[in-house]
Amino acid sequence: MAKFLLWLILLVLCWPLALLALVLWPVVWVLAIPFRLLGIAVDGVFAFLRAVVMLPARILGGGRA
């Protein structure tokens, strides 16, 4: 809701910039998809590496009281 209100204020103050933002937002969103996928993949790799490094401690029962 806040984004919509900010866009309406921008529309009143500078309507060409508001319309340009409205038209370009889907293009920016589509261009950002590969970076999102890369972030998900990197997060998965780091989670896998953490699991591999912590495996000996989990097997030996470390961290439990």
Write a structural description:
The chain has 65 residues and is an all-alpha fold. The radius of gyration is 23 Å and the shape is elongated. The mean pLDDT is 89.
Index terms:
mainly alpha
Structure at a glance:
The chain is mostly helical and about 60 residues long.
**Low-confidence parts, pLDDT < 50 over ≥5 residues?**
none
Biggest β-sheet, characterized? none
DSSP strand (E) fraction? under 5%
Element order: H for helix, E for strand: HH
Structural class: mainly alpha
Mean model confidence by pLDDT = 89
Query: Could you give the distance between the termini?
Result: 48 Å
Rg from alpha-carbon coordinates:
23 Å
Overall shape: it is: elongated
Overall strand count: 0
Percent in helix: over 70%
How many individual helices?
Answer: 2
Which secondary structure elements does this structure contain, and how are they paired or packed?
Layout (H helix, E strand, L loop, with lengths): L1 H12 L1 H46 L5
